[in-house]
């Protein structure tokens, strides 16, 4: 749709009230009120964002501090558990080596002594 300048002037005259000092003063007061309301809302949003950042850092600290302390506190127990586990594996290996003995390779005199 093509709009010519006479139609644009006519539309502009309908939407814009005449500029008199009382009307301008009223518009300025409304503008100031709305600006103050926007300022108050933006301060609330800013405070909300700041608290969200603080709480997210606290949440991360609540998760990772016990993990780090638990690691350092339980490290000696894990080392002890590793020693016990390796001893058990050593016993298992010695049991496996006993099970792998070929009884046919044992001397007959040793077998007679074992039967007694």
Write up this protein.
84% of the residues lie in helices and 0% in strands. It has 3 helices and no strands. It has helices at 5-15, 21-99, 108-115. 0% of the residues are buried.
Average pLDDT score: 81
Largest sheet: none
Helix content: over 70%
- The count of DSSP E runs of length 2 or more, i.e. the number of strands, is 0
H/E element order: HHH
Q: What radius of gyration results from the CA coordinates?
A: 44 Å
Kindly estimate the percentage of residues that lie in beta strands according to DSSP: under 5%
What is the CA–CA distance across the termini? 118 Å
- Count of helical regions: 3
Sheet/helix structural class: mainly alpha
- The best one-word shape is rod-shaped
Q: Regions with pLDDT < 50 over 5+ consecutive residues?
A: none
Write a compact overview of the structure shown.
The protein is mainly α and 116 residues long. It contains three helices and no strands.
How are the SSEs placed, and which strands pair?
Elements: H1 5-15, H2 21-99, H3 108-115
Keywords:
84% helix
């Amino acid at each position: 749709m093509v709009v010519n300048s006479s139609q644009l002037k006519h539309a502009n005259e309908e939407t814009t009230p005449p500029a008199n000092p009382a009307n301008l003063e009223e518009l300025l007061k409304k503008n100031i009120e709305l600006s103050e309301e926007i300022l108050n809302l933006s301060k609330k949003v800013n405070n909300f964002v700041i608290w969200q950042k603080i709480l997210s850092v606290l949440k991360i600290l609540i998760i990772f501090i016990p993990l780090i302390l638990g690691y350092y506190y339980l490290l000696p127990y894990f080392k002890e558990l590793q020693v016990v586990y390796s001893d058990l594996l050593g016993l298992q290996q010695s049991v496996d080596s006993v099970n792998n003995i070929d009884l046919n390779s044992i001397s007959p005199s040793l077998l007679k002594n074992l039967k007694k």
